[in-house]
Write a structure and sequence with these properties.
8-stranded parallel beta sheet, binds pyridoxal-5'-phosphate
Length: about 220
């Protein structure tokens, strides 16, 4: 019996997820490969399979993964999907193409200053804490309007969409529906929602971007 190599496994899983996304919704959402905590071999394997859109949740790890690879892959698109400290705003603006985790006014101000200084303007999404979980990052649904106004009018930023991470112990559907409703209320077109366990569901709810780690790379321990 033959077994596929780990690299072939990653390519096969990617192809299956892309096909499932195509089947779930037209147009299919973009697949963001979440490369946090992945070894170099796994990242190189998925690059070889054609993946160019990646998500990372820590600035420092993202720099280690991507600063040197950028030169070889000019079509890379890097999304920051983890919480951002204001003192890392300049580093994030320098590296990422999309920052999905704008969640407070102070961060909007820091990002505006960093963009001015760096001469680079990543696209921005507001992270919404749809479950209103006290320990979770994100603006609560009732604060989105105020944050959006601040970002646009005080900080001069353009915000193009919303992202959410539903509570783990709840069905995700109502959270996806809520995020979509808030986006519609504010005329925002980009919706980042859905992870390994629910990317097809998110696609059916109209996600424009899904963020998939383990379903793509396999368990970190098996990598
Ligand atoms: C890690 C992470 C993901 C990917 O999670 P998987 O369950 O491994 O697909 C998606 N979004 C965010 C914000 C993450 O931190």
């Amino acid at each position: 019996m033959t077994t596929d190599s780990p690299n072939q496994d990653i390519a096969n899983r990617r192809a299956a997820i892309l096909a499932a996304l195509e089947a779930a919704h037209s147009p299919a959402p973009e697949l963001i490969a979440v490369s946090k905590s992945q070894p170099d071999a796994a990242i190189d394997a998925i690059l070889a399979a054609g993946q160019r859109i990646f998500g990372e949740n820590r600035v420092q790890e993202a720099q280690a993964h991507w600063e040197s690879r950028r030169a070889d892959y000019p079509d890379l698109v890097l999304h920051l999907i983890g919480p951002l400290q204001t003192n890392k705003a300049a580093d994030a603006v320098r590296l990422f193409d999309v920052i999905q985790t704008l969640d407070r006014e102070k961060l909007a101000d820091a990002l505006a200053a960093a963009m001015e200084k760096e001469g680079r303007r990543p696209q921005l999404l507001i992270q919404v804490n749809t479950g209103e979980e006290p320990q979770k990052a994100g603006a609560t649904p009732s604060k989105v309007g105020q944050l959006l106004r601040h970002a646009r009018e005080q900080a001069g930023l353009e915000v193009i969409g919303l992202m959410c991470i539903p509570p783990v112990e709840e069905p995700a559907g109502p959270h996806f529906a809520l995020l979509k409703k808030i986006a519609r209320d504010y005329g925002l077109g980009v919706l980042s929602m859905g992870m390994s366990g629910d990317y097809e569901l998110a696609a059916r709810y109209g996600a424009t971007h899904v963020r998939v780690g383990t379903a793509l790379f396999g368990d970190r321990s098996a990598a």
